[in-house]
Design brief:
With 82 residues, chain A is mainly α. Chain A has helices at 3-11, 14-19, 38-52, 63-66, 69-81. The longest helix of chain A is centred in the middle third of the chain and has 15 residues, at 38-52. In chain B, helix 3 (49-68) crosses helix 4 (71-107) and helix 9 packs antiparallel against helix 17. Classes of the chains: A mainly alpha (82), B mainly alpha (490). The A-B interface holds A 13-15, 31-32, 34, 37-39, 42-43, 45-46, 49, 56, 58-63, 66 and B 276, 280, 288, 291-292, 295-297, 299-300, 303-305, 309, 314-315, 318-319, 322, 325-326, 358, 361, 365, 369, 373-374.
Chain lengths: 82, 490
């Protein structure tokens, strides 16, 4: 549901775009695959609040929610459904 | 002494083992490899085999118990595994450092405790196999791995000789299934294995050991001038890289011949654009281990479960958590190498450089990225990034190599006092310059091809030419092989 928008957010940074492999999968780990470093991830996560009109609490900050595009998408669906 | 991969003793040992290994039926191969691994380790000092066995038994037992228990019992067994392994590592590697630091601290208050450092011999490879065995119990705890039933296979995972002494640090979930699975000689990629071993040996014996001569001369000379210091630092940067990546390549080549694929430990680090990129290319298995088991858990834990979570702004909260995690892990990375003040400063240096990179990033993105990082100036920008990163790396290796902080300050002052051309015109340096050019050109080819192994996939004629070039350089410049691997001391 949100995957294309999330991918667009990733691609908006030229440095990240260069690191994205051609065969990048939605289930690939963003940090472990080296596509993002943790400070890139911070920018991505911080952009979620205004972009998707949500508020992230401490309980949302888990590895399961932000590890892959697929997990981020599921997290957003859950969050928006709340 | 058979543990130097490039020694004739080792090569004879390995060929005998390899022949027997493939001649035996499958069920006898792992017992043979285990026996060979213990023999290999005992050739250095048989007394430390006991430590390997302790680590093996504790993690085998804890792994099985973690899988079967729940709640606090599960945590307790993980704690036991962490406590025993890290306890042994800390005692052998850091006891004297902490003792001396404690004495220095209380001496500052006018009291000198009557204690003296212990004479402790560092067991070979302890930092490597400790991290490797810890991955087993942590992965079982995190439900990423089921414990192995075979103590023999687990013992082989801990002591597998191609990577026992200096890595690559393999995670149990990658190496154990290979150890346990069937292997066939027909599936061994012999050309790749041979290439890895020969090129790895060349990097170590010809490039690293030749650089070592200059490095040792200058680092032993307190009156070295700026020109000599800068050349020695560059030479040590190449020595360190070729020594360790050469070892890792040889380990991978040997292991491939036994049907087991080890992880890549270096991915052309001299083509990194910044320190984050460098961290993904240098000693990859250690950096990856620290990222997975320390950095990432801390990155999520700190902004959600500690007082940092009270910070209202999400970005600031995450930034504080990430910065603290970065600090902890860079210090861990540096101190993993040894208990010396220079390594503590090295950790701070890496942390500061990475933090500076993060600070500059928004400026770069807002003002310069379109002009310099895209279009015709992109290639020039990449060159400048690579050159700058090499300077940052080179100063880091001064901290790595220096005997103490006094030598670091002495060399730093010498660097600031200018360079005399006499150092550069020394005729003995031409051979080193040729080696450096060859290395950088060949690595650039690998970078352009996007494949470190591209040459091993070429035809026989291209490979033959390559091996002849290596041979000619070894004959002309000299294959020394008289230096121990630098990473054996960690």
């Amino acid at each position: 549901m949100y995957t294309s928008e999330l991918m667009e957010m990733l691609r908006s940074d030229p440095a990240v775009r260069r690191r994205l492999p051609d065969d990048f999968q939605m289930t690939d780990h963003l940090l472990e695959s080296g596509v993002l470093d943790s400070f890139d991830l911070i920018n991505l996560v911080a952009e979620l609040e205004p972009r998707f009109d949500i508020v992230l609490g401490p309980e949302d900050l888990t590895q399961d929610n932000f590890s892959t595009i697929d997990n981020l998408n599921r997290f957003l669906i859950r969050k928006k459904g709340c | 002494m058979i543990f130097l991969f490039h020694s004739w003793d080792f090569i004879l040992f390995f060929l005998a083992l390899l022949g027997l290994y493939w001649a035996l039926p499958q069920r006898f191969r792992n017992p043979l490899l285990l026996f060979g691994s213990y023999l290999f380790y005992a050739s250095w000092d048989w007394r430390f085999l006991g430590l390997l066995w302790v680590s093996t038994l504790v993690d085998y037992f804890c792994g099985a118990r973690i899988a079967r228990s729940e709640g606090r019992t599960r945590k307790a067994y993980l704690g036991l595994s962490l406590g025993v392994n890290l306890g042994l590592l800390c005692f052998f590697k850091y006891f004297n450092f902490f003792l001396e630091s404690f004495v220095a601290l209380v001496s500052g208050f006018g009291y000198r405790p009557p204690v003296a450092p212990l004479t402790i011999l560092l067991p070979l490879g302890i930092s490597f196999y400790t991290f490797q065995t810890l991955s087993y119990s942590i992965d079982i705890y995190r439900d990423k791995l089921t414990p192995t039933k075979s103590l023999l296979n687990f013992a082989l995972f801990v002591s597998y000789f191609p990577q026992l002494i200096a890595g690559p640090i393999e995670k149990a979930r990658d190496l154990l299934p290979q150890i346990e699975g069937p292997k066939q000689w027909a599936q061994v990629p012999l050309k790749t294995a041979f290439y890895l071993f020969v090129y790895g040996a060349f990097k170590k014996v010809v490039i690293a050991d030749s650089m070592a001569v200059l490095v040792e001369r200058v680092f032993a000379d307190p009156s070295a001038d700026g020109g000599q210091v800068v050349l020695a630092i560059y030479a040590f940067g190449l020595q360190l890289y070729c020594d360790f990546s050469g070892y890792s390549k040889m380990a991978r080549g040997l292991s491939l011949m036994l049907g087991v694929k080890l992880s890549t430990n270096f991915n052309l680090p001299f083509f990194s654009e910044n320190y984050f990129d460098f961290y993904r290319r240098w000693h990859i298995t250690l950096c990856d281990w620290i990222s997975e088991y320390v950095y990432t858990p801390l990155f999520y834990y700190l902004p959600s479960r500690t007082s940092i979570s009270r910070v209202k702004n999400l970005k600031t909260r995450l930034f504080l958590g990430a910065t603290l995690s970065l600090f902890v892990t860079r210090m861990l990375f540096a101190i993993w190498h040894g208990a010396k003040a220079t390594f503590v400063v090295l950790g701070l240096y890496i942390f500061a450089i990475q933090l500076l990179t993060v600070a500059v990033r928004p400026l770069w993105k807002a003002n310069w990225v379109r002009r310099f990082d895209q279009g015709p100036l992109r290639a020039l920008t990449r060159c400048l990034q690579v050159v700058l990163m090499f300077q940052i790396y080179s100063y880091g290796v001064l901290l790595f190599r220096a005997e103490d902080l006094w030598q670091v300050s002495q060399f730093t002052v010498a660097l600031g006092q200018g360079f005399s051309l006499s150092a550069v015109t020394d005729p003995s340096l031409w051979a080193l310059g040729l080696l450096a050019l060859f290395l950088l050109f060949y690595e650039w080819l690998q970078y352009r091809q996007g494949d470190q192994l591209f040459l091993s996939k070429k035809g026989l004629d291209a490979q033959l030419v390559f091996y002849l070039i290596l041979f000619a350089m070894a004959v002309h410049i000299g294959a020394r092989g008289d230096q121990r691997f630098i990473y054996f001391q960690y």
